[in-house]
């Protein structure tokens, strides 16, 4: 059996190895590595570790002294966490001030809220998505998790002190912690809305506390100080078996899940936290062979510096990426990881360890006693101090002259929300939107979810021959200005379409996607469900024949909005209901409204998915509601973001499952083409024209 013995606090190298696994999972996620879409789960591993170790320290102190010194606990936490983060904030803010001033508006709010460890609630309040980011992204978008942990460090010792006085028995404490964890998990289940952006439940302290509390509960029944290295062979095998299975479960989830997985929020994160707790229990045990393997010297070295690696990796990735999420290469990724480790190592050696060992306190006492002379400060100290002072001065200068906003679109002012700063509504095609929060916001830094006031008008339908037919939708005007501001270029207007949709700018907000493969009964065809023609330069020069007398309705986001003028030319009488920032979850209501108004045609085009993923159930319900129409054309997407493959896979499967549905493979059609503005998402005029041609070709094939 596994014995418990009254050992003092000891070092557990296996837990540092687990830290290494967690931090590299997060790095792989932020590098958009395709085989680790669930790398964001590394944060939950950190939460479980923190809950276990902090509670283990607190209970050990209680056993030793019969009380908890809260002041000293908080001082130790500040000394451990604040110096490295302040240095990183100063360095990043100084760099952005000098080299990336367009990012300063979103950086300021993140920096200040992170400094006070309320960044997660700041992001929730401003409805900033963690997952849907376009344009200049804040390099501090990862610090929300440190805010969750620090809030735990502030509140948990108080609750522990009360609990230990009222119910000192381990059994009652354990049940209390599990009950609190269950409440937190239930809150996530209740608040989470499948098919919508999950950022609220992802950021919230209330909805993420269960991971910390599961770790805390483990420390009550598995205190590190009582684990003995002397166990029998069968117990060791059991221990190692549990360790292997729990680590395997974690790796499988990192490999197989993603941020939009419907399994993740109703219970998947709870299962991940339980697997992490099992791994912690094994790796913390001195008799575990798995603990020795995972705690080998290289992994241990990285794990000790994992805090620094975590806080540095995201700024390094963001500030060294110049062309959005599409700017990826193995060589660059290796450089980014190496730079993050190097900066973390410097931070650990020059900042974290000296301060943790009392450098500031010793220096202050010497200064007060007059024993600290200039000649006693080593050259390394002068260089470090002077560098930090310079960074602080530059960063404060940048912050002081920049207003804080939650998105870059807000910072761009009227240009981002219409030429005159008013709600950008076209008489012909609605540019109504949602604030920012998605691909349609174009150059927005961080995106807010629905509820913003920048594109607040109701969507309007487009019909051929309206008086405003030659106008450029204000969404395109605003997008042009936003893209120009973000990229430092001025878009040149293209010639208007011959039959009058709108004058299209080279930076118009049109989404990404590709040509559908040919039908299976055609040469080279691969799927009877797919429609469209191969992409190429010729495709943009040869408009399709005009199709008259077809009742067509099209529902989409700004990608469809930009193609609308060409659709009016190729499909006279088409009804287009397009809105900036639209999500698939809104489509059923739009279908019912169009049906009630008598505007739902026999042919329905759905172009959604640019702004985030959706559940298969949502899409199936939508298509089931369209069983009475002759044909539904689903347009897939090309968006260099994590949800691209999720969206396109769901659309392909749905098209295969519904007889009246055709998949237009815009992802393939746009492959390798120069249709896109610098964000890699929105289209120039030739891309919009090709998309309209492909939709026209696809309509009426059933």
TrEMBL record:
Keywords: Acyltransferase, Cell membrane, Membrane, Transferase, Transmembrane, Transmembrane helix. The chain crosses the membrane at residues 12-32, 81-98, 151-167, 174-192, 207-225, 237-256, 262-284, 381-400. Residues 525-537 have a biased composition (Gly residues). Residues 13-346 form the Acyltransferase domain. It holds the Pfam family Acyl_transf_3. It is found in: Cell membrane. Residues 414-545 are annotated as: Disordered. Residues 430-445, 466-493 have a biased composition (Low complexity). It is a multi-pass membrane protein. Its main location: membrane. InterPro entries: Acyl_transf_3_dom, Acyltransferase_3, SGNH_hydro_sf. Belongs to the acyltransferase 3 family. PANTHER family: ACETYLTRANSFERASE, ACYL_TRANSF_3 DOMAIN-CONTAINING PROTEIN. This is Peptidoglycan/LPS O-acetylase OafA/YrhL. It comes from Paenibacillus favisporus.
